[in-house]
Amino acid sequence: MAKQSFTAGQVLTAAQQNALQLNDYNQTVSTKTVSYVLVAADAGTRIVMNAGATNTTITVNTSLFAAGDTLEILNTSTSGICTITAGTATVSSASSLALGKNAGGKLYFTSAGVSVFQASDSGDGLAYISTTDFSGGSTIQFQNLFTSAYTNYRALFTITAASPSAVYMRYLVGATVQTGNIYCAQTAIQQSIPNTYAGYARSDQYSLWATSYPTYPSVMTVDFFYPQAVSYTNFLYSFMTGLSATDFVGGEGYGRNAATTQIDGIELYTGSAAISGTMTLYGYRK
């Protein structure tokens, strides 16, 4: 129920009082499926964004709300990010204003033009962004992964089919592969041969990332640090690949893009054979 205005001497009906009481427990909900600009009647209500896989915004303008006004915002989109955006008003937050699936919080106004977004959690940890299933040729691109919404990211990969003995990762700007300036090192240990059998550093157009076999899937975790900053993009990774039902290889490594380029995507590359799997992306909350 939106915020009500009453006049002196007004007699409230039972229905009005029941509605007010109900709103103490269940706010009036307004569901949106496209980007939305808040209006004055939204004070005291809950805005739910349900836009499927589409990224949306909720815009906050000034002179619509008064000091002390609040409203709830919740994003239930399957994978679309809903970003609370300052129009003519100011929006501050200790956490990200980019809301992933099932993320939300309270927008509190300290004046007509200044608001604070209070996330429904502490703002720490990982925020789910999206899950992508992939299959096809020897090159799989994930474009527009990294934005200014988060400073650092984590990607989880499961490669369920791959004919080659190696899968590589390259950086992207748009659809353009960034060549050179990549430095990395890796160590790996095989379960049945408990000795480190790979440890190296290299600098070329791609970064050796993991070994993969079609029968026993590979699982990999990659942390990306400052991909959208005009500075080095560093990454840390770990992986495990099955060689048989009882034998496997596990390893970890690190790398750097020594060019001060804003990276916004990555590419998986085998050189010849097709790969398939799943990639799930998270952002580290600020």
Mean pLDDT: 82
What topology, given as strand order, has the largest sheet?
11-23-13-19-20-21-16-17
> What's the number of helices?
1
Unreliable stretches (pLDDT < 50, length at least 5) are none
Q: Please state roughly what percent of the residues sit in beta strands, choosing from under 5%, 5-15%, 15-25%, 25-35%, 35-45% or over 45%.
A: over 45%
Q: What is the structural class?
A: mainly beta
Distance between the termini: 33 Å
What is the string of helix and strand elements?
A: HEEEEEEEEEEEEEEEEEEEEEEE
Q: For the record, what CATH class of the largest domain applies?
A: Mainly Beta
Under the CATH scheme, which architecture of the largest domain would be assigned? Sandwich
Number of strands: 23
Per the CATH scheme, the topology name of the largest domain is Jelly Rolls
Helical residue percent? under 10%
Major sheet, described briefly?
A: 8 strands, antiparallel
The shape, in one word, is: elongated
Based on CA atoms alone, the radius of gyration comes out at: 24 Å
